[in-house]
Design goal:
By secondary structure, this protein is an all-alpha fold. The protein has a single domain, classed as Orthogonal Bundle (ADP-ribosylglycohydrolase fold). Helix content is 59%, strand content 3%. Helix 16 packs across helix 18. The chain is globular and about 50 Å long. It starts with a helix and ends in a 5-residue tail after the last helix.
Length: 376
């Protein structure tokens, strides 16, 4: 790690400069945020590097761009329950946009709900000191293979065979860089509002059960951004806080950094998508690097409007990236404050259906708010 750190010593020096600036002058709004990040080199974020992509948490933290953010947690407590509900509803809007078509009444098909309920059960049983092994045990005890797909199904089979994390994810390294852990990572941000570093750590513990490499980084990015969303009102801030929790030398940071640079340069959303696909389109559609880029673009160009944000995330460039709308909605939702505006397509009483049954959005939000680390 010392060799890698030396190789990128100039970039890491810029990180330290950014951290000191953050201590002295917190973010206020989009224009000033952009100005400060231009001055500190964020518009020069890497596009693609011959980069180390470590898997251990301490090594990841050595190469991240951010400091540990110290938000005013009194603000979190004052608005926490309603922002949790707003987030769940906005995520539901994203899931609906990703899976258009008829549904039974107000039921919302959600391929992640069983995993999300299992994550809540892990925290209820073990608190915030849970380990990846606790997550693995809960998967084996509470989930069925039929309720899972893709990387999660592969990991589940490994767990059932007695293989423990992180080996359960590393057996399928290429598949493990998919975006499944990112799809469920918003929950860790909701459970650690205003503490993006801790949210990213929780996401890391969860994601390494089923994912590796960029798949883990995508989860950390989404969790940190969702955590920041409880105390900021600027999607640019949430994106930068989120990407600040992954290695600055990673492909995922490069993709999100390119999105930020294009946005700040005034490029159109269409041009930004073309550039993102030109750089990263060789990766499969469900790769976490591509999904993180699409989430970042949706948040940056959605102008704080839920419908526009999830529609941009769902808009394909010849291919569908179905995870992106739900993640973008989940990050934007807490920033919107008042839950369930009339034009939102999901209501608190709507049912979220998974393999193990159904639960209402209001129940999911209430259970999350009761567990939240800074919720009361």
């Amino acid at each position: 790690m010392m060799q890698a750190k030396g190789k990128f010593r100039v970039r890491l020096f810029l990180c330290e400069t950014f951290r000191e600036g953050m201590r002295r002058r917190p973010w206020k709004h989009c224009s000033s945020t952009a100005d400060r990040f231009r001055k500190r080199g964020w518009t020069e974020m890497p596009v693609e590097l011959p980069s180390p992509e470590p898997s251990e948490l301490e090594e990841i933290r050595l190469l991240r761009r951010s400091a540990r953010h110290r938000y005013d947690l009194a603000r979190v407590r004052a608005v926490y329950p309603q922002r949790v509900l707003s987030g769940w509803l906005a995520r539901g809007a994203g899931v609906r946009a990703a899976h258009p078509g008829p549904s039974a009444g107000r039921a919302l098909p959600d391929p992640q709900v069983d995993l999300l309920l299992t994550s809540l059960a892990v925290v209820e049983r073990h608190g915030f000191t849970f380990s990846s092994d606790h997550v693995a045990g809960a998967w084996v005890d509470n989930l069925s293979e039929e309720a899972l797909s893709g990387t999660e199904k592969t990991a589940y089979r490994s767990l059932r065979s007695g293989i423990r994390p992180p080996r359960s994810a590393e057996l399928a390294r290429e598949e493990g860089e998919a975006d499944g852990a990112m799809a469920r990572a918003f929950l860790w941000g909701y459970l650690a509002p205003g503490d993006p570093g801790f949210a990213a750590e929780l996401a890391w513990r969860d994601a390494r059960v089923s994912h590796a490499g960029s798949g883990v980084y995508g989860a950390m990015f989404a969790a940190a951004a969702a955590s920041a969303a409880f105390v900021c009102d600027d999607p640019l801030e949430a994106v930068l806080v989120g990407v600040g929790e992954v290695p600055d030398t990673s492909r995922l940071a490069g993709a999100v950094g390119r999105c930020v640079r294009l946005h700040l340069a005034g490029e159109s959303w269409e041009q930004a998508v073309r550039e993102l696909e030109s750089a990263w389109g060789h990766l499969p559609p469900g790769h976490a690097v591509r999904t993180a880029g699409r989430v970042a673009l949706a948040l940056l160009y959605g102008k704080m409007a839920l419908a526009a944000t999830v529609e941009l995330a769902a808009a394909g460039a010849g291919e569908r990236i179905p995870v992106a709308p739900g993640v973008a909605g989940a990050i934007l939702g807490p920033m919107l404050g008042e839950p369930g505006a009339p034009e939102w397509p999901v209501r608190p009483g709507d049912t979220v259906a998974g393999g193990a049954g159904a639960v209402t959005v209001a129940d999911l939000a209430g259970r999350t708010a009761r567990l939240g680390r800074h919720g009361g």
